[in-house]
Design goal:
By secondary structure, the protein is mainly alpha-helical. The protein has a single domain, classed as DNA Binding (I), subunit A (Orthogonal Bundle). It has four helices and two strands, in the order ααββαα. The structure holds zinc ion. Zinc ion binds next to strand 2 and helix 4.
């Protein structure tokens, strides 16, 4: 086996899948601390990819919460994410009617 193949295999073992993260966190969003549905979940890199986040620890979070996190390294309180998520979901619901 070539070195790059071995390295890729090692990384694959090291990096958790979204399914694993979701189970580990019992379906709780890491950012707003609220329950999420499996199809709402996305992987949040604790360190943004811009700063080399691909090798950083991972956590599962709402797609919407994740988008509000942006590239800000400053931690935000769960209320910040919850408020923004509810506002967006509310707006979406209005759009559907
Ligand atoms: Zn959330």
């Amino acid at each position: 086996m070539s070195w790059s193949k071995r390295k890729r295999k090692w990384l694959a073992k090291k990096v958790k899948t979204l399914d694993q993260l979701f189970k580990d966190q019992s379906g709780i969003c890491a950012l707003c601390q609220q329950p999420m549905m499996r199809e709402e979940a996305s992987i949040d890199h604790l360190i943004p990819q811009k700063f080399g986040g691909i090798h950083s620890p991972l956590q599962a979070a709402h797609m919407i919460c994740n988008s509000f996190r942006g590239h800000d390294l400053e931690p935000k309180p769960p209320e910040y994410f919850l408020e923004n998520r509810l506002r967006i979901e509310h707006r979406r619901n209005i759009g559907n009617n």
